[in-house]
Q: What sequence folds into this?
């Protein structure tokens, strides 16, 4: 904005005119988890953020940019929260390596902007003392300074600066202008930044941590006056929300609400997206000449992207809840309440929310596993998340149940159809617990389990700005992936289902002449023991794109349009005449387990950073699906339902 | 407040409402999860250092596990198995429904 009145005397600055002397300063945000670091990042950079992954690891890299009042352009890197540089998780390793300048392809930050929760300084000050040894210019922001003052904390900033040897400023990330003092100090630091100081950091052992903590406690005691009357809001809320029985009941209530919202709030938007893509598809159908190009644009491009984009509203509603609860401070509490219950199956308390999210769609569920620090715990959660019955299975379930399960009541008033639906959900949950138990207690039984050690942050009012940027980020990540990996997979599946084209004068649906049909016939001997005919095999392949597409594909194969409710009814009646009950039950059992969702596989590949884990997921789910369908079919045939 | 340093016990066995001062953090033979030295470092990093005052604020339904421990100005959730590594001098055991009170530094 304003030109530099005096060129900075920094040695690195190029001589000459002031305008050419302005170079970008690299600043990194470092701090404990829950210190309000991300809120400060949002406040400083606004919408000028981009998110990617660090090369070779699945840790999210968030960078933003802004210009200081003094005219210095700044690139700000939001490093994962950590308690020390001793790095216990992949996230913390990134923080350590970036701070120490050891991460290949990542510029070492010139200034460390250390963030601390002003109401909880003990641990933060120890981190500052440790960071001081790294020898980079540093600035300490006491965040949530307004809350601290409101609660009656008093700070001796001059003394704190003197003790720590770094500039200290109060900041309020959630209020406009709350970063003014911080920006001024950053300007001052940018103009005097010394070239380099000796770096004598080394990981501390127990004695080293104790000594640092004692020093930190001494400094905090000398510089911070605690309130005369301690704040009891958090402990009063915890008396209810963490109550052994009441707390669990409230958690269930919150989850119920969240679940309802994901399905009901998202529905209008999903319908609108679907209608929009249908309209575009119809437009393409009318405008383009009949042929491969039309089929590609309509069924491959628009159909494929639409099938994925339709989940965006659900993902946003889900993440709205997750971000709100996280910001409020409830997520750590949910993990606390569920830890023992999940622990029986070898899952970490923190796996609870991701698994729950997977009932809507496995993709946001798998994305939400990022809150789990330990790689093994995270992998176990990712591996079982797709077993949770996602909303895309519902159309398949309802079609088959309506066609084959008699609409009558059993056991004194229970709806048989509803009971079967419930059984399918229960089968998914039970198998997820079984698989995670197998992974953690059999495959990884010799590796140590991650301890549950989690800070329960004080409750605070969620900040609308943080929620907004958080949602925008999730949408950006999802859309980016929908436009790249997922789109590519959709096109492959379209290709298999549409090429080669039917010969002239063909009397069967086009898909029956495609590679997909050939594959369906080839698979017949393999899938006959589970009761599938070649038509089902053909439908399974486009169903790879998204499970519910299988319904439309069955309609195509049987030459019946299932696009409207009436069509679905007719399809159901047609199926009831063509399949045995055993085949229908086997298909249901298959769908509980089958890895039929290219988007989920792509997400697993991205989140685990490995094709191997994606392969493991695909392989084990396919094996389970085959086994379940086989047992179901053979049992049903033996009982006379063949 | 009369401080009665009558006995030392492990935080993992302490009841709800327990308040004590940390005497030692030694993870030898504690928890099935991590090597003792690593568990000890992690506990220290979460603020469980000698001299800190701790209070058990909440506990889970099954096996009274995990526990939510107030350590100075922070609350940390840990499992009882790992809390065994923390030896504490008993300050007092208060009724859980009374107003919780932060310990002074």
A:
């Amino acid at each position: 904005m304003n030109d530099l009145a005096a060129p900075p005397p920094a040695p690195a600055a190029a001589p000459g005119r002031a305008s050419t002397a302005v170079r970008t300063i690299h600043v990194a945000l470092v701090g404990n988890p829950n210190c309000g670091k991300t809120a400060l990042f949002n406040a400083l950079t606004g919408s000028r953020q981009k998110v990617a992954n660090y090369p070779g690891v699945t840790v999210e890299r968030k960078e933003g940019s802004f210009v200081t009042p003094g005219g210095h352009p700044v690139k700000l890197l939001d490093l994962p929260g950590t308690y020390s540089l001793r790095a216990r998780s992949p996230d913390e390793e990134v923080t350590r390596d970036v701070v120490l300048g050891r991460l290949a392809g990542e510029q070492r930050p010139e200034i460390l902007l250390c963030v601390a929760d002003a109401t909880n300084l003990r641990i933060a000050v120890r981190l500052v003392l440790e960071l001081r040894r790294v020898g980079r210019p540093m600035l300490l922001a006491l965040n949530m300074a307004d809350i601290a003052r409101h609660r009656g904390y008093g700070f001796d900033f001059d003394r704190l600066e003197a003790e720590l040897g770094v500039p200290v400023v109060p900041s309020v990330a959630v209020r406009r202008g709350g970063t003014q003092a911080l920006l001024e100090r950053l300007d001052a630091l940018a103009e005097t930044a010394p070239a380099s100081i000796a770096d004598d950091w080394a990981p501390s052992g127990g004695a080293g941590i104790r000594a640092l903590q004692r020093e930190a406690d001494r400094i905090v005691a000398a510089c911070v006056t605690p309130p005369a009357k301690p704040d009891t809001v958090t402990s009063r809320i915890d008396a209810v929300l963490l109550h052994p029985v009441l707390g669990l009941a409230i958690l269930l209530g919150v989850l119920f609400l969240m679940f309802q919202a994901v399905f009901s709030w998202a529905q209008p938007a999903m319908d609108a997206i679907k209608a929009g893509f249908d309209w575009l598809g119809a437009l393409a159908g009318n405008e383009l000449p009949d042929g491969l190009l039309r089929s590609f644009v309509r069924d491959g491009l628009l159909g494929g992207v639409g099938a994925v984009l339709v989940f965006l509203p659900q993902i946003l509603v889900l993440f709205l809840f997750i971000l709100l609860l996280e910001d409020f401070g409830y997520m750590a509490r949910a993990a606390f309440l569920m830890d023992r219950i999940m622990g029986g199956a070898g899952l970490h308390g923190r796996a609870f929310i991701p698994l729950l999210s997977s009932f809507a769609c496995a993709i946001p569920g798998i994305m939400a596993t990022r809150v789990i620090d330990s790689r093994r715990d995270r992998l176990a959660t990712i591996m079982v998340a797709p077993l949770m019955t996602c909303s895309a299975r519902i159309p398949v379930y309802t079609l088959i149940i309506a066609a084959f399960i008699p609409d009558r009541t059993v056991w004194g008033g229970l709806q048989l159809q509803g009971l079967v639906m419930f059984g399918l959900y229960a089968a998914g949950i039970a198998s997820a617990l079984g698989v995670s138990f197998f992974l953690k207690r059999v495959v990884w039984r010799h590796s140590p389990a991650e301890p549950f050690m989690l800070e329960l942050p004080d409750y605070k009012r969620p900040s609308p700005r943080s929620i907004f940027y958080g949602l925008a980020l999730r949408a950006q990540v999802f859309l980016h992936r929908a436009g790249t990996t997922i789109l590519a997979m959709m096109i492959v599946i379209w290709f298999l289902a549409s090429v080669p084209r039917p010969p002239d004068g063909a009397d069967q649906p086009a898909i029956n002449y495609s590679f997909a049909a050939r594959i369906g016939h080839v698979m017949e001997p393999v899938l006959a023991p589970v009761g599938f005919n070649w038509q089902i095999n053909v439908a399974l392949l486009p169903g790879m794109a998204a499970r519910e597409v299988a319904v439309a594909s069955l309609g195509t194969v049987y030459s019946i349009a299932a696009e409207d409710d009436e069509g679905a009814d007719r399809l159901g009646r047609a199926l009831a005449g063509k399949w045995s009950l055993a085949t229908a039950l086997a298909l249901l059992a298959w769908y509980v387990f089958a890895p039929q969702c290219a988007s989920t596989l792509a997400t697993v590949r991205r989140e685990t950073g490995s094709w191997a884990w994606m392969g493991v997921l695909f392989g084990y789910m396919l094996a389970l699906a085959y086994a379940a369908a086989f047992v179901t079919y053979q049992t049903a045939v033996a009982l006379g339902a063949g | 407040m009369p401080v009665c340093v009558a006995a030392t016990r492990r935080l993992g066995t302490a009841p709800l409402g327990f308040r004590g001062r940390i005497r030692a953090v030694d993870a030898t033979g504690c928890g099935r999860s991590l090597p003792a030295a690593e568990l000890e470092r992690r506990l220290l990093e979460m603020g469980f250092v000698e001299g800190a005052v701790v209070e058990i604020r909440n506990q889970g339904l099954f096996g009274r596990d995990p526990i939510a421990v107030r350590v100075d100005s922070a609350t940390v959730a840990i499992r009882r198995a790992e809390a065994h590594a923390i030896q504490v001098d008993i300050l007092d055991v208060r009724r859980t429904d009374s107003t919780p009170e932060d310990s002074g530094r």
In short: The first strand of chain B starts at residue 8 and ends at 10. The CA atoms of residues 19 and 92 of chain B lie 5 Å apart. Chain B has one domain: 16-93.
